[in-house]
C-alpha cells in the first residue's frame, strides 16, 4: 500500500523537517517522563500527607486522656468545651461511653458520635476523617475527627508545591531542547545550503565544514558524485563543442565546393541533364547550409551549458539588442520590415551578465520568432518598465495559457525590473507543446525550418543570468500568437 501511495503523483509524501521531528520527539519523551514523575509525586504526596495527618489525629487523641479523667459522672449529660479560635478547619473531638453517648465534645464536633458502634481504629466519613481510641478509663472512648475539607486542602497545597516546579520546567525544557536541536542541526543546515547551491553551473566540491562523523560521510559521497557528474558533463560538453567545431571547416569547404560546382554547371548550355544536376546541387547547398546552422546551434548550446551566462559584468543590453536586430533585419533592407523595435524612452539599459551570452540569448529568441512568424507579418519587440498594471493578468489570460519555462526561477517583479517581450502572430500552441518547448530538439507543429535548440539555449542562458523567461501562447488578450517575456533586473549605481 505504501508503494502505491508513493507512486501516485496525486498524493505526494508530506514534507517534514528533521529538526521539528527531533524537537517534538525529545520534548514529548521528556514531557511524558515528567508527567509520570508528577503522577508519582502526587501519589506519594497524598500518601505522606494522609499518614502525617493520621498521626496528628492519634497524637491529639492521646493528649485528650486528661479530659477523660475529669469526667466522673457517666450518663447522658453532655458537656461542650468552648475554646477560642475554633474554626471549621480545626480538629474536632468527642469523648463517649461504650454505648456511643457523647459525654464531652468540642464546639465544632457534631452532637452525635462520629461513628457507631464504637471500635478502635480509623474511619473515613463524608465530613471527617475519624480516629477512635479507647481511653484509660475502661468505659470511655476518645474520638478525634479532622474535617475532610482541611485534609483535601492540605493535600492539594502540598501537591501544588511539589508539582508546580516540574510543570514550570516544561517550557524551559522546550526552549533548551529547541536551542540544542538547532545548534546540533546547524552543520546539517550548512551542508544543505552548500548542496543547494550546486547545479549544472556549479559543480565545485563542498568545502570542509567541520561536520560531525555522521554528516562527513554524506559530504564525501556528495563530493564524489559531483566529481563524477563534472567529469561526465565535461566529457559531454567537450565532445559536443569539439564535434561542432571540427565540423565547421569541412562543412564550409563542402558548401564552397557545392556552390562552385553549381556555378560551373549553370555556365553550360541549359539541357535537361544540366538542369537536373543544378537542381540537385541547389538541394545539396540548402542541406549543407542547414547542417551548418545546426552545427552553430550545437556550439551555442555547448557554450550555454558550459556556463557562459554565469559571468557577471556590466554592459548595455539595449545596444546588444540593436546589433542583433540589425543583423537579422537590416534597417536599409528593401523588403518590408520584419522586426519592429519599440524601446520607448530607453537609451541604455545596464544589466549584469555576459554580453556574448546575452547576444546568443536574444539572437535565438529573435530567430525563433522570425522563423515561425507567418509570411508578411512582423515580429514586435517591446521594452518597458515594470508597473503594477502589467504585473498581473486577468484570470482568463492566465487560464488561456501561461507556462513558465522549466527550471526558470519564479518571477518576482520589482520596481527595478525591465520587461522585454518578443511577439509574433503564429498559431496558438497547445499546453503540452508549450510546456515542453524549451527542451532540446522539441519543436511545435510547424513546417518551418529549425533545429529545436533555440529556446533550449535561451532557457539555459536565462537561468544562468537569473533572468526569468516566460512563454505565452496565445498572447494574453488575443486568440493567436506566441510571446516570450524576459524580466531584466536593472543595475543602478548603488548596486
From TrEMBL:
Enzyme Commission code: 2.7.13.3
Catalysed reaction equations from the record: ATP + protein L-histidine = ADP + protein N-phospho-L-histidine
Highest taxon above the source species: Bacteria
Xref: Pfam families: HAMP, HATPase_c, HisKA
Top EC category: transferase
Principal location listed in the UniProt entry: membrane
GO molecular function, one term: ATP binding
Domain Histidine kinase span(s) in chain numbering: 242-492
Membrane topology, from the record: Multi-pass membrane protein
Compartments where found: Membrane
UniProt KW keywords: ATP-binding, Kinase, Membrane, Nucleotide-binding, Phosphoprotein, Transferase, Transmembrane, Transmembrane helix, Two-component regulatory system
Matching InterPro entries: HAMP_dom, HATPase_C_sf, HATPase_dom, His_kinase_dom, HisK_dim/P_dom, HisK_dim/P_sf, TCS_sensor_his_kinase
Residues passing through the membrane, by range: 22-44, 158-179
Chain ranges of the HAMP domain: 182-234
Stored Gene3D superfamilies: 1.10.287.130, Histidine kinase-like ATPase, C-terminal domain (3.30.565.10)
Native source species: Acetobacter orientalis
GO cellular component, one term: plasma membrane
Protein name, UniProt field: histidine kinase
CDD domains membership: HisKA
Signal peptide positions (record): none
Amino acid at each position: 500500500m505504501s508503494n502505491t501511495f508513493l507512486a501516485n503523483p496525486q498524493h505526494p509524501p508530506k514534507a517534514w523537517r528533521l529538526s521539528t521531528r527531533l524537537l517534538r520527539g525529545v520534548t514529548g519523551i521528556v514531557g511524558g517522563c515528567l508527567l509520570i514523575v508528577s503522577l508519582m509525586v502526587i501519589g506519594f504526596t497524598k500518601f505522606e500527607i494522609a499518614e502525617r495527618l493520621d498521626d496528628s489525629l492519634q497524637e491529639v487523641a492521646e493528649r485528650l486522656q486528661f479530659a477523660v479523667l475529669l469526667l466522673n459522672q457517666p450518663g447522658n449529660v453532655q458537656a461542650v468545651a468552648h475554646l477560642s479560635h475554633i474554626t471549621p478547619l480545626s480538629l474536632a473531638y468527642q469523648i463517649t461511653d461504650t454505648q456511643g453517648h457523647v459525654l464531652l465534645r468540642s464546639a465544632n464536633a457534631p452532637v452525635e458520635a462520629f461513628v457507631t458502634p464504637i471500635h478502635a481504629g480509623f474511619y473515613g466519613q463524608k465530613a471527617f476523617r475519624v480516629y477512635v481510641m479507647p481511653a484509660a478509663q475502661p468505659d470511655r472512648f476518645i474520638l478525634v475527627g479532622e474535617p475532610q475539607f482541611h485534609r483535601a486542602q492540605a493535600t492539594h497545597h502540598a501537591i501544588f508545591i511539589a508539582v508546580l516546579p516540574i510543570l514550570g520546567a516544561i517550557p524551559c525544557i522546550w526552549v533548551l531542547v529547541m536551542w540544542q536541536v538547532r545548534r546540533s542541526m546547524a552543520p546539517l543546515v550548512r551542508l544543505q545550503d552548500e548542496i543547494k547551491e550546486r547545479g549544472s553551473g556549479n559543480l565545485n566540491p563542498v568545502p570542509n565544514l567541520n561536520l560531525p562523523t555522521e554528516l562527513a560521510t554524506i559530504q564525501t559521497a556528495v563530493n564524489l558524485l559531483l566529481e563524477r557528474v563534472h567529469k561526465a558533463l565535461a566529457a559531454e560538453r567537450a565532445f559536443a563543442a569539439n564535434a561542432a567545431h571540427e565540423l565547421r571547416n569541412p562543412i564550409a569547404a563542402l558548401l564552397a565546393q557545392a556552390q562552385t560546382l553549381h556555378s560551373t554547371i549553370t555556365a553550360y548550355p541549359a539541357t535537361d541533364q544540366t538542369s537536373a544536376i543544378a537542381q540537385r546541387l541547389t538541394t545539396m547547398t540548402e542541406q549543407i547550409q542547414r547542417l551548418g546552422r545546426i552545427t552553430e546551434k550545437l556550439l551555442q548550446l555547448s557554450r550555454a551549458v558550459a556556463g557562459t551566462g554565469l559571468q557577471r559584468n556590466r554592459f548595455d543590453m539595449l545596444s546588444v539588442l540593436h546589433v542583433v536586430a540589425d543583423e537579422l533585419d537590416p534597417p536599409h533592407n528593401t523588403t518590408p520590415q520584419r522586426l519592429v523595435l519599440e524601446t520607448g524612452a530607453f537609451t541604455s539599459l545596464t544589466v549584469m551578465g555576459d554580453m556574448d551570452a546575452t547576444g546568443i540569448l536574444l539572437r535565438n529568441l529573435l530567430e525563433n520568432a522570425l522563423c515561425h512568424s507567418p509570411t508578411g507579418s512582423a515580429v514586435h519587440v517591446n521594452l518597458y518598465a515594470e508597473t503594477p498594471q502589467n504585473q498581473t493578468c486577468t484570470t482568463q489570460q492566465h487560464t488561456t495559457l501561461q507556462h513558465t519555462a522549466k527550471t526558470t526561477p519564479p518571477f518576482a517583479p520589482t520596481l527595478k525590473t525591465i520587461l522585454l517581450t518578443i511577439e509574433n502572430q503564429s498559431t496558438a500552441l497547445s499546453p503540452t507543446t508549450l510546456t515542453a518547448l524549451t527542451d532540446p530538439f522539441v519543436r511545435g507543429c510547424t513546417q518551418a525550418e529549425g533545429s529545436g535548440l533555440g529556446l533550449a539555449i535561451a532557457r539555459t542562458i536565462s537561468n544562468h543570468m537569473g533572468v526569468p523567461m516566460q512563454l505565452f501562447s496565445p498572447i494574453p488578450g488575443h486568440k493567436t500568437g506566441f510571446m516570450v517575456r524576459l524580466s531584466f533586473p536593472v543595475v543602478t549605481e548603488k548596486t
